[in-house]
Amino acid sequence: MQNKISNLLYILSISTIINPFFIISAHRYYNTLYDNSNRGPKLSKLLKLTAESFNFLVENQHYLAQELSDTTPQNEDTYDFIVIGAGTAGATIAARLSEISQFKILLIEAGFHENLFMDIPLLAAFLQWNRNINWNYRTKSSNKYCLGMRDNSCPYPRGKVVGGSSVLNYMIASKGTAEDYDRWAEMGNEGWAYKDVLKYFKKLETIDIPELKSDTVYHGTDGPVHITSSLFHTPLAEAFLKAGKELGYPIVDYNGKNEIGFSYIQTTIMNGTRVSSNRAYLHPVRDRDNLHTTLRSTVTKVLIDRITNRAIGVEFIKYDKTVRVFANKEIILCAGAIGSAQLLMLSGIGPAKHLTELGIDVIRDAPVGENLMDHVIFYGLTWTINSSTSFNFMDLNPIKSYITDFLINRSGPLTFPLAVEALSFINTKHPKKRSGLPDIELIFSAATYKEEFLFPTILDFKDKIRRMWGKYAGTYGWSTAPILLKPKSRGKITLLANDVNVKPEIVPNYYDDPEDVRTMIAGIRTALKIGQTKAMQAFGSQFLNITYTECNNYKYDSDAYWECQIRILSSTLYHICGTCKMAPSEDPTAVVDPRLKVIGIQGLRVADASIMPEIISTHINIPIFMIAEKAADMIKEDWRY
To answer: Are 172 and 619 spatial neighbours (Cβ–Cβ below 8 Å)?
Structure first.
C-alpha cells in the first residue's frame, strides 16, 4: 500500500513540473553526483515533495499576477511613445520610459504572458520548438551549410512571448570585451566605446556571485538583472577547468577585465529560475498607470507621414481586428534582428528595388536586412567516458531526485541550461594571448546528447543523422561545442511578400568567407587537445568519431574532413544581429545613426540586436539589455528629461 501511495505522490509531483512541458533528464546513478546518505523516511519526503509541488503551482499563480494587464487600445488612441516588441530590449525600454510619469507608453507584443514553467532552466531546449511562444523562422535551404538538417535548413527560433527571446535563450550571461565596443566607436559610432557602455552594463546588473561582488569596476550590485553561478558542478566540469590550466589558460571572470580563459558559466538565473526581461523589468512596474500593454497584437507596419517623413503611428492586428494608434513623440522598434528589419521594409524603408518589386511604396532607400551576422556553433564533438558521472538524456530514473532538488531547494540539474556548466574563450590565431578579442568560444556540457529524439528534434536533424546518433543512446560522456565568435561572413534578410504573415527569407551565409572555416577548424583542434589532457583522460575520455557519408572521401582529421563535418552539423546559436546597422548618417551601410534614430525618418528609432554594426565576441542577450538601457537614456535626453 505504501508503495502505491509513493508512486501516486511522485506522479502528482512530476506532473506539476512537466505539464505543459515534457522533461527528459540526465544521468543514471544519482549517487555519483549527490550525497543521498540521509534520505529519511520515504513517505515523509514524498509528502513534503507533494506540498512543494503545490507550492510551485501557487508560486506560478503569484508570478502570473505580476504580469502587466493586457489592454486593447481603441482605434486612433494616442500615446507619447509606442514600443514595438516586449522582448529583451522592448521590455527594458518601456519600463525605463515609464519612470517618467509624464510619459504615456504603449508596449505592443505579438505573444502572450510568460509563466514560471518556462523559467525552469533545463526546459530551455523544449522552448526552442514550442510553436506557441516561438516565431519558428527557418533559414533558406542551402548546399553549403545546415546540410544535416531537414531540407538543408536550420531552425531559427525567436521568442513570441512577453520577454521575447530572453524567455527562450540558454541564460548564459556575458558582456563581451572592451575591444568589441571600442571597435564600434572606431567605426564612427560616437558614444559606444567600452568606457561609454560599461556604466549601462553595471546599471542593469545585480551580481549574485559572492567572489565577484567586490569588483565594482566591472559589476553592478543594484540592477534588475540578477547574475549567478551554480553551486553544484559535475566532476567533469571541474576537470574541464583543470584541462584549461594544463593548456596554460587562466580561470577567469569573463565578464571582468579579460575574457580569454576558462570559467564556470554565469547565468541570468535567480533562485533556480530564469530572469527574463519580463521578470526583471516589467514585473516591478506593473502598477504604473502610464504603461499600457497590448498582447497577441501583430504590428503590420509603421505609419509614416510622407510629407514630413515622420513616423506618426502603428497599425496592428488583434483578434482579427485592425487597430491604428498614434505617437506624439516616438516609435521605438524592438522586434529583433528579423522582426525589426521586416517591419521597416513593410513600412517602406529598405532596399528600393526590392520593395518596388513587391509593390511596397518606397519612403526611404536603405540597406535594411543587410549585414546579417550570427554565431554559428558546431555540434560534432563528443567524448565517451568509463564512469557514470555525467548526464544521460535517455535515462528517466533520476527524475524523482531532480524534481525533489528543484522543488525543495531550487538546485540540481533542473537549474542548468541544458546541462551546460562551463565555457572557455580562446584566440586560435594567437594561442598565447590572454587579453583582447577571442575568436572561438567552447561550450562544455557533461552530456553526450547522443540519442534519437530530444536534441535531434530541437536541431531538426535529418533521419539518417538521427539514426547514427541513436546508435550511441545511453552513453556517458561529455561534449564541447566550438562557437565562431567573429565571423567575416555576412548574410541577408529579404521579404517574400508584402505581408507580415509571410516569413522573410533568411540567408545567414555561414562559412561564406574561407577564414571562418579555418577559424572553426582551429577551434575544433583546440577542443581535441582538451580531450587529451590528463584531467579529461582521468575519466577515460575517448573521442566519439561519427563520420557521415558525405565525408567518407576525406582523410580523417584533415582540414577537408572537418570542413565537411562543420557544414553538416553547424547551426545557429540564436545570436542573429546587424540587420539595421548603426553607423554615421553619411555611411551608405547605415540604417540608424549612433543615437539609434532611423536615418531620414523623424520620430522612429530601432533599439535591439539589429543595430549592432559588428557582432560581439560573446552571447548577445546581456549586450541587448545594455543597448536598451542606453537607448532609454538617449530618448529621455532628447526629450529633456
So the answer is: yes
- Please count the CA atoms within 13 angstroms of the CA of 347 that sit on its side-chain side: 30
Contacts of 435 by beta carbon, 8 Å cutoff, 6+ apart = 257, 258, 260
How many alpha carbons lie under 13 Å from residue 128 in its C-beta half-sphere? 24
H/E element, 204: helix 194-204
Whole-number pLDDT of residue 400? 66
What's the rounded Cα separation, in Å, for the pair 459 and 129?
9
Task: Please report which helix (H) or strand (E) contains residue 106, including its range.
Answer: strand 105-108
Alpha-carbon distance 155 to 150, whole Å?
Answer: 9
Flag whether pLDDT at 38 surpasses 70: no
The catalytically annotated residue of 292, 375, 575, 619 is: 575
With 0-12 / 13-18 / 19 or more C-beta atoms within 10 angstroms meaning exposed / middle / buried, residue 87 is: buried
The dihedral region occupied by 267, where left means phi > 0, alpha psi between -120 and 50, and beta the remainder, is beta
Closest-CA residue to 123 (of 417, 363, 473, 421): 417
Alpha carbon distance 469, 467 (integer Å): 5
Which residues make beta-bridge pairs with 491? 372
27 is catalytic: no
Cβ-count burial 351-372 (b if 16+ within 10 Å, e if not) = beebbeeeebebbbbbbbbbbb
pLDDT digits (tens, 9 = 90+) for 96-123: 999 999 999 999 999 999 999 999 998 8
Give the whole-angstrom CA distance, residue 570 versus residue 574.
12
Which of 634, 641, 632, 639 minimizes the C-alpha distance to 89?
632
Is the CB of residue 366 less than 8 Å from the CB of residue 600?
yes
